[in-house]
From TrEMBL:
<dbReference type="InterPro" id="IPR050736">
    <property type="entry name" value="Sensor_HK_Regulatory"/>
</dbReference>
<feature type="coiled-coil region">
    <location>
        <begin position="128"/>
        <end position="155"/>
    </location>
</feature>
<feature type="domain" description="Histidine kinase">
    <location>
        <begin position="155"/>
        <end position="373"/>
    </location>
</feature>
<dbReference type="Pfam" id="PF02518">
    <property type="entry name" value="HATPase_c"/>
</dbReference>
<dbReference type="InterPro" id="IPR036890">
    <property type="entry name" value="HATPase_C_sf"/>
</dbReference>
<dbReference type="InterPro" id="IPR000700">
    <property type="entry name" value="PAS-assoc_C"/>
</dbReference>
<keyword id="KW-0597">Phosphoprotein</keyword>
<dbReference type="InterPro" id="IPR013656">
    <property type="entry name" value="PAS_4"/>
</dbReference>
<protein>
    <recommendedName>
        <fullName>histidine kinase</fullName>
        <ecNumber>2.7.13.3</ecNumber>
    </recommendedName>
</protein>
<keyword id="KW-0418">Kinase</keyword>
<dbReference type="InterPro" id="IPR035965">
    <property type="entry name" value="PAS-like_dom_sf"/>
</dbReference>
<dbReference type="InterPro" id="IPR005467">
    <property type="entry name" value="His_kinase_dom"/>
</dbReference>
<keyword id="KW-0808">Transferase</keyword>
<dbReference type="InterPro" id="IPR000014">
    <property type="entry name" value="PAS"/>
</dbReference>
<dbReference type="Pfam" id="PF00512">
    <property type="entry name" value="HisKA"/>
</dbReference>
<dbReference type="GO" id="GO:0000155">
    <property type="term" value="F:phosphorelay sensor kinase activity"/>
</dbReference>
<dbReference type="InterPro" id="IPR004358">
    <property type="entry name" value="Sig_transdc_His_kin-like_C"/>
</dbReference>
Amino acid sequence: MNPKIRKNKNRYFHYQKEILNTISEPASFIDRNFRYLFVNSAFNKTYEKETDEVIGKTVGELWELADFENKIQPSIEKCLKGKPVFLLYEGITPNGKEKILEMNYYPHRNASRRIDGVISTAKDVTEHKKAEQALKESEARLKELNATKDKLFSIIGHDLKGPLNNILGFSELLEQGFDSYSSDEIKHYNKLIYKLSQSVSDLLENLLTWSRAQRNVLKVSPNNIAVCFTVEKCFGLLIQNALHKEIRLKNIVPPDTVIFADEEMITSVIRNLVSNAIKFTHRGGTISVGARSSEKEVVLEIKDTGIGIAPNKIPNLFLPNENQSSAGTEGEKGTGLGLIICKDFVEKNNGKISIESELNTGTTFFISLPNEVKK
């Protein structure tokens, strides 16, 4: 090559390097073999690498190999074909730190206008992206809180006020006409008052629990729990409801089944699901609670022979902004609040809840929770 031409080419590249050194962001020149031929001072500072640690090495040697092969290499190859490329990179940088970078690759043409490599620049947007994500999560949380507030007002304004007004009305009838009613009529009104009071009591219990959960007053304190005993305790609380409808409660959880969870929360979950099952199961039906264990988790199954749930309603059962309230087989009132609490409590204990149902056949709730922790 003519010495004069070589000198001009070297001077051309020298000027480019001087320009790149004025940039405050990491910049580098990468040849067609993916080797670094130049890095600016910002590159040294950002990635904590001296120039002699970088020059001559390939991009794959400096960056995580998997990230290079899956993210960086395809971008450079596309750029070498003549098109600038933008890449939002999320991964490990050469100094071993996990970052989010806006990376730009520009085709570099030599003095002969042939593409001989790529100019790469990068901008650290980690904090900006984290702030964006935090804002999105905050917005989602705000929407959820608004839906929760609307649900609460709806419950207080309708589901709580209605039964209380009915209790007052029936009580007033008994008070004013006690001597004129037959014993059968009095029993009938007492039965109605009992059912309404029971509904209000369940609702208030759920409202208080839910309120404590929303205010983060409830703290998760997981321990090893013998599930069979917990189910038996829940059955004891609900046996009168079941006997009233001649429903059989079956605890088929193996006695040695142990989960690692907050006992108060899981008791509330089981109680709510069994209580719901009683509402939506006809007289003479059966409700069973079983469990199957694997190496990492226990799956509880709360199964009833009730009326089932329509397929179009299942996806929205656990959403606070959806009104899923419906009457039980004997007119029992519900709000859907219990299921929202169940989902919240299960997830707080690193578990999952799902449902299978068939109309006029029954419903099964599945709750997966961590297995016991060996001490």
